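Minutes, project huddle
Topic: does the predicted pose make sense with adenosine-5'-triphosphate bound?
PN asked that the exact inputs be recorded in the minutes so nobody has to dig through chat later. Recorded below.
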Amino acid sequence: MGNTFNSNPDEVMLAVSKGRIFEQAMPLLERIGITPTDDPDKSRKLVLDTTAPGVRLLVIRATDVPTYVEYGAADLGIAGKDVLMEYEGSDYYEPLDLKIAQCRLAVAGPPQAVLVDGRTRVATKYSKVAREYYARLGVQAEVIKLYGSMELAPLVGLADRIVDLVDTGNTLRANGLVEFETICEISSRLIVNKAAMKTKHKRVSAIIAALRAVVKDG
Ligand code: ATP
Ligand code: PRP
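Predicted holo structure (tokens), as shared on screen:
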């Protein structure tokens, strides 16, 4: 039981999102003694109690995790590096790569894209990342913000490139698109509110250490 989280009077809030991150984070959290008492896919509750006394899960949208943690509404959070890169703030600690939900952020498009006036039109949910990427390359690009199904944009002439997450490449292939460049590798990170690191030091650092140990063990 070396990695099992021990009870403590302080309350700790951990923000997670439903779906992929919840599914992949739960085995890690269970190994350190944090098991939700409700299934978020069945329950409508947004705050879930866990088997660890005083540890509760906040179930929120993936893109909202850094906001909750930065403002201290959650002490800890689990978020994809893609979400963190796109987030405007950065006032939180990022002590641990959980190595879950692994994929990459990539530039993709039709194999024979024709650029009008040599200007790239890029459709993406990751407008900040895309702007920074093209600025680094010194390439003029018009970035069109979308909220999902980026793969559709080149098929209907909205853009000639997309910046999106790629894992198996199946979604790109199914839509006749090819991957051109990887922008960066992505995985989920544990993030921590800066004040909570001090005021709840014992509890928060115990969770970080326990998770670090299970991630290292594989
Ligand atoms: P929301 O539902 O709030 O819009 P989302 O659709 O981005 O969020 P998920 O699809 O569950 O939520 O993705 C959560 C995180 O999982 C992403 O931020 C990314 O880090 C990672 N991820 C997304 N797609 C993949 C994939 N195909 N393979 C591996 N990891 C992925
Ligand atoms: C993500 C991402 C890609 C797809 C890539 O979508 O936005 O579309 O995964 O994975 P692949 O390379 O293995 O096909 P997701 O499955 O999360 O659906 P979403 O549109 O609901 O986010």
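Observations noted during the meeting:
- The CA atoms of residues 102 and 187 lie 4 Å apart.
- The chain has two domains: 12-101+187-217, 103-185.
No decisions taken; revisit at the next huddle.
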